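Record type: monomer structure entry
Structure origin: computed from sequence
Chain ID: A
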Amino acid sequence: MNNQIFAANEEANTTVATGENQIIVSPMNILLDLDETASANAIVLDRDGAFVEGITLMVVSQDKTKLKIIDRDFITSESGSIEFSLLGKAKGDFIITVSDGSVSTHINVAVKDLIRYVLPYFYGDMQISLINPTNFTNYVKIQFHENSDRDEPPLVVRLNDKEMVTLRLSEELDSKLTDGWVELFATEILVGGTWTNKGYLSFDQIHAYQ
């Protein structure tokens, strides 16, 4: 199967220079709608794996007029980390570079005009099917909304043309899910849904984001 799946809080991108610090960023891939924001973080470790506190990281957008970095305080905390937000102002594919002056790593950001879908009911170990009926690569961001105060990270799936995948969200997110619903954002037309005890439940396309 050629699709690429990653959970936003699990995948990390890192670059290491011998004898220098190590910078780990998460997530390493972000999919944004126009005028949408997303959070990312970076952790600095020394060559022994200990957190590095109190250093200033440089966080640079490839095109700051189209992909804006909102937070500007990049001094690492006791846990060696910083957190910052990104705002997609124009469509395109961009790179965010995070560096301490010696080593660097990057985050890939795609800003698209996304199509929104809703799966009004989803529970626990239910599987979700995604079908890309188009002749184009389709990137799909899946956001599970639990009927509680807990926030789950988004899951992004890359579907090649005419590809279908079936996912068990609880496994992909490595989390025990309870009652809730699913919101999906796709770069192309998307078909799919889930089986419930009352039959097959398909996605509903939302024509105007609210």
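Annotation 1: Helices lie at 169-172.
Annotation 2: The CA atoms of residues 144 and 152 lie 6 Å apart.
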